[in-house]
Amino acid sequence: MNDTMVKLVTETSLYYDENVTNYVAIHPEDGMFSQAKQVKILSKHDTFEFEVILKSTVTPGVIALNHFQRRKYHLKKYRSYFVSCYSYKTPSLTLFDIINERFNFKNRIGGMESLLEEIFGNVLLPRLYPQSFVAKTVITKTRGILLHGSPGTGKSLIARTVCDILKVNPKIIRGPEIFSFMLGQSEQYIRDLFEEARQDQQNFGSNSALHIIVFDEIDAVCKNRAQSNSLRDNVHDNVTAQLLAEIDGMIYLGNILLIGTTNILESIDPALLRPGRIEKVIKVELPNAAVKQPLSNIHIPFVLTVQSALI
Ligand SMILES: Nc1ncnc2c1ncn2[C@@H]1O[C@H](COP(=O)(O)OP(=O)(O)OP(=O)(O)O)[C@@H](O)[C@H]1O
Ligand SMILES: [Mg+2]
After folding, report:
1. CB contact set of 233 (below 8 Å; sequence gap of 6+)
2. Cα distance from N-terminal residue to C-terminal residue, the chain
3. Domain 143-285 is classified in which CATH homologous superfamily?
4. Where in or outside the cell is it found (predicted)?
C-alpha cells in the first residue's frame, strides 16, 4: 500500500444496477471512492470486499451493485451502510452533502441528516431523477409518508420543504377543520381533494403534474378506533372510511403524494398504516446538542435582522 494512502470510512447508500457483476460501480467523480481500487461494505453481520469500477451512470455518492450480489451478501435495498476504502484523497462529500449541494437543506432545516436522506431516497429521488434511472434501481415511488413527533420538531417544515423542492403548491388540510362542515359535506370534501389528481391522471396519464396533499394532525381524521370514546360518532367513522377509500384508490394514480403529520402516532387508526396505504412512517425527533448549533445558524440571523430593524 502506498504511504500517502489513508483509510476512509463513510456512510452511503446502495443502489442496484443489473449490469454490474462481481464488483461495485461508483461515479468517476465521486470524491471519496473514485481513487479506491476496492471498498469494504460493512453490514450488521459481516464485511464484504468488492473491486471498484467507475461508471458515469451511477449517481455520485452511492454505490451500485446488482441483485445477485444483494442476495448473496444479504445487503438490504436502499439502506445506508458504512463503507471503507483506502484512497489518496481526503474524505469529501457524504450522501447528505451531495443532496444538500443541490437542495440546500442546511439553510432551511438544521440537523436531521439521516432523516432527510431517508425522505430524499423515498420521496424526492423517484420524482426528481429520470424514470430510466429509477427503473434500474429497486427504489419504489412512495405514495404517502407520515411524519410523527413532538410539537415543534419540524414536521410541517419538512413537509413545506418537500413541496418547495418538488415545486408543487400543496393542498394543506388541518385534520380537525374537516369536521366543521355540514353533515355529509366532510366526506365530499375528502373526495374533492383527490378529484383534481384523478382528472389529471385521466387526461394526461404519466405526464400528469404531481399533486401533494398535506394532512396536518391526520390523527383527527383517522382516529384509532381502539382508543375512541363516546365523542367518536358516525361522522368520524364515515370520514375515516372515505379517506381510506381515497388512499386505496391512489394505487391507480401515480400523481399523488400524501404527507400526514401527527404528534401522537398511537392515536392513529392502524388501518391507515397498512401496507399499500401510508407506506413510510418517519419519526421526527427533538434535536440533540450537536444539532442545536446548525439550528441557531438558521434562526439567529433572522432574529438579529428583526432586532436591528426594530432599534
Ligand atoms: N430542524 C429544524 N431546523 C430549522 N428550523 C426548525 C427545525 N425544526 C423546527 N424548526 C422551526 O421550529 C418551528 C416549528 O416547526 P414546525 O411547525 O415544523 O413543527 P411541527 O413539528 O410541525 O409542530 P406541530 O406538531 O406543533 O405542528 C418552525 O418555525 C420551524 O421553522
Ligand atoms: Mg405542524
Report:
1. none
2. 62
3. P-loop containing nucleotide triphosphate hydrolases (3.40.50.300)
4. Cytoplasm
Q: Please give the grid coordinates belonging to residue 174.
A: 388541518
Distance 225 CA to ligand 1 centre (A): 29
Q: State the cell numbers at 126.
A: 423517484
Cα within 13 Å of Cα(62), Cβ side: 20
CB atoms within 10 A of CB 298: 14
Q: Distance, CA 150 to ligand 2 centroid (Å)?
A: 10
Distance 118 CA to ligand 1 centre (A): 18
* CATH topology (fold) of 6-94: Barwin-like endoglucanases (2.40.40)
Domain ranges of the chain: 6-94, 143-285
Look at residue 220 and tell me whether its pLDDT is greater than 60: yes
The number of residues making up the chain comes to 311
Helix, strand, coil percent values for the chain (each to nearest 5)? 45, 20, 35
Could you tell me if 259 and 212 are in contact, meaning their C-beta atoms sit under 8 angstroms apart? yes
Looking at per-residue confidence, does 23 or 297 come out higher?
23
Which bound ligand lies closest to the C-alpha atom of 214? 2
Q: Confirm if 59 and 139 have CB atoms less than 8 A apart.
A: no
How crowded is residue 183: how many other Cβ atoms within 10 Å of its Cβ? 9
